[in-house]
Amino acid sequence: MKELRLAGIDIGTLTCRLLIADLSPSGPLKELHSERRILRLGEGVDRSKRLKPEAMDRVMHCLKEWRTVIDGYHVHACTAVATSAVRDAENRQEFLDRVKVEAGMEVETLTGEEEARRMMLGIRSGLPPHVNDVLALDIGGGSTEFVVAQRGQPLLVHSIDIGVVRLSERVLHHDPPTKEEIQRAREWIRRETAAVSALRTRIAGAAFVGTAGTITSLAAMAQRLPAYEPSRIHNYRLTLDTIADLEQQLLTRTKAERVGMPGLENSREDVMAAGAMIVRTVMETLGERVCLVSDLGLRERVLIHLAMSR
Question: What CATH number should be reported for the domain holding residue 61?
Answer without folding.
Answer: 3.30.420.40
